[in-house]
Design brief:
By secondary structure, the protein is mainly α. The chain has a domain of about 30 residues. Helix 1 runs antiparallel to helix 2. The radius of gyration is 15 Å and the shape is elongated.
Length: about 60
């Protein structure tokens, strides 16, 4: 799942860049996408042991 979140973050960043290059980027869209990207990146960067401790299981 953590790899998926990293890929998702990269996909959001690429989409944002594509809209910026095309000149179709709206400020509200940029803020929302950057927020999603940052959150996905932070979650993907978490240590699995920290997640396991937080959720109390081995299924992380």
């Amino acid at each position: 799942m953590l790899l998926f979140l990293g890929d998702y973050r990269d996909s959001l960043d690429q989409g944002l860049l594509g809209h910026w290059r095309a000149g179709t980027l709206v400020l509200a869209q940029e803020h929302e996408t950057r927020g999603r990207s940052l959150l996905a990146g932070e979650i993907a960067g978490l240590d699995r042991d920290v997640l396991r401790t937080f959720y109390g299981g081995d299924d992380v």
